[in-house]
Amino acid sequence: MFESFLEAELTKRIGTPVEIAMSDGFVEGIITSVTGNLLTILQTVGYGYGTTTTPLTISIPAINFVTFSPVA
Amino acid sequence: MIRLAISNEARAALLNLLGSLQQNLTNTTTAATTEILDTTTAATTEILNTTTAATTEILNTTTAATTNLLNNTLINLLRLRLLPNLSTLRNDLTNRLNQTVQLSTEYETLSGVLLAVLSDYVVLAESDGTMHFVNLSKIETVASL
Questions:
Q1: CATH, residue A32
Q2: Taking the mean position of all CA atoms in its chain, how far away is CA A43?
Q3: pLDDT, tens digit, for every residue of B25-83?
Q4: Does the structure's ipTM exceed the value 0.95?
Q5: Where are the domains of chain B?
Q6: Lower Cβ count inside 10 Å, N or C end of chain A?
Q7: Quick check: is A32 in a domain?
Q8: Contact (CB, 8 A) for A39 and A63
Q9: A61 and B135: CB-CB below 8 Å?
């Protein structure tokens, strides 16, 4: 059901809205790509890191957790 | 029995006719047999070709799939070796599968049902359907609720 590695599981969910918590911050966006241990998202809410206009690349090992909300 | 008196010429002509009838029959049979043989050979060749093609395809697909599987297994093994040793934490969490647990990370403490424990992350589900994929290496404390 779930992939063995977070990287593979996130690759399956490209295009899905996510919330990503790092040790000192939190971002919301849509997964656009997963390359190696790097995750790229397009932020939908403009707080945390970066802006909503440029993609944000996150190191997967730095992620505390990834949250998927149920589809409304 | 009816006997017909025929002349020698008529008898010869009749015999001739009989002979040509036999020849015709032989020719037709030969032609039909040759045709059947040809058709059978063509059909057999086609079946053989199709079978060969199908077998080659299956072999290729199987070889490709096996190579992929082997490569993936190798990559996963290498990664597992490179990961910090989280097996104790993973074992502890595996024992709490399907239980309601509280996991703390540096950012936040999460509560929910522990759905799965994978190689480098765990899946936590809240009652409203929200799913958290928590990085194993970022888990600080574990408690069952």
A1: 2.30.30
A2: 9
A3: 999 999 999 999 999 999 999 999 999 999 999 999 999 999 999 998 998 888 777 76
A4: no
A5: 8-82, 87-144
A6: C
A7: yes
A8: yes
A9: yes
CB atoms closer than 10 angstroms to residue A27: 20
Residue A39 lies in a domain: yes
Of B79, B118, B132, the CB nearest to A65: B132
Task: Kindly report the average pLDDT of chain B as a whole number.
Answer: 92
Instruction: Give the structural domain span for A12.
Output: 6-66
B3 touches chain A (CB under 8 A): no
pTM for the whole thing?
0.64
DSSP summary character for residue A46: -
Residues of chain A in contact with residue B120, where contact means CB-CB under 8 angstroms, are 4-6
CB atoms within 10 A of CB B96: 17
Q: Which of residues 94-113 of B touch A (CB under 8 A)?
A: 105-108, 110
Name the region of B141 (left: φ>0; alpha: ψ -120 to 50; beta: rest). beta
Q: What whole-number distance in Å separates Cα of residue A29 and Cα of residue A17?
A: 6
Q: Which residue has the tokens 């995750």?
A: A39
Contact A68, B135 (CB under 8 A): no
> What's the gap in Å between the CA of A23 and the closest CA on chain B?
5
On whether residue A44 sits in a domain, the answer given is: yes
CATH assignment of B87-144? Answer: 2.30.30.100
As a whole number, mean pLDDT of residues B125-129 equals 94
